[in-house]
Amino acid sequence: MAKIIGDICNHPIETFNDDRISDWANSHPMIWNPGDGNDIVDGTDRNIAIATGLAHHLSQTVHQRDAAAGVPDVEAQGLRNTGLLPLVVPKLYGGLGASWATAMDIVKILAKADSSAAQLYGYHLVLSVLPHLIGTPEEAAYYYHQTAQHNLLWANAINTRDMRLTLEPHGDGFVANGIKSFCTGAVVSDRIICAARQDCNPFPVMFVIPADRPGLTYNHD
Questions:
Q1: Among residues 43, 148, 61, 54, which one has the least CA distance to residue 102?
Q2: Distance (Å) of CA 66 to CA 27, 71, 114, 186, 189
Q3: What's the burial of 165, exposed, middle or buried (CB within 10 Å: 0-12/13-18/19+)?
Q4: What span, in angstroms and rounded, lies between the C-alpha atoms of 213 and 191?
Q5: pLDDT tens across 113-151, in order?
Q6: For 84-115, what is each residue's pLDDT tens digit?
């Protein structure tokens, strides 16, 4: 569950800090790193091979992490290190341009080893193209570029059965207030797609916020 309070549109988009992530990964030996990839062929086979490597690594500690529960930092950072976050982002925008058949094969590979990592990645894949499906062409291009350039991990606070989150105009932007449940991956993500309600609008309103936006609280429940 996440409590979302604060200005949505008047803050700049936060960029992904590769140095910060590299330093963090180096201090956590449980994190998987694919190396330089020189021993892996190009294209689809390379993507599958990298995913298989991560799956094997996660399988070594899956029971330990499942018993500990908590925040899936190890799973999320392993996914970041694969370079497969822009898997279905078109090559035009700097992504890998893989097919959805390949994407689902990778989800299945991960699920056989660590279902939590597979769920994070499956949600990420769908959410990373959602601006294309429901946004403007300009929004689609912007978020595709952002995902590819900054290795963004996407999560959601959509759950339209829980509409306690509101979005109201405020100055030149909007303010979101309220609570959302079933926010898969939000606490370890870089971008969150939210669904909120507005007065006089019968349909949920969708918007994107950086996961470290001031005013956003993760309740870990």
A1: 43
A2: 21, 10, 9, 18, 19
A3: buried
A4: 10
A5: 999 999 999 999 999 999 999 999 999 999 999 999 999
A6: 999 999 999 999 999 999 999 999 999 999 99
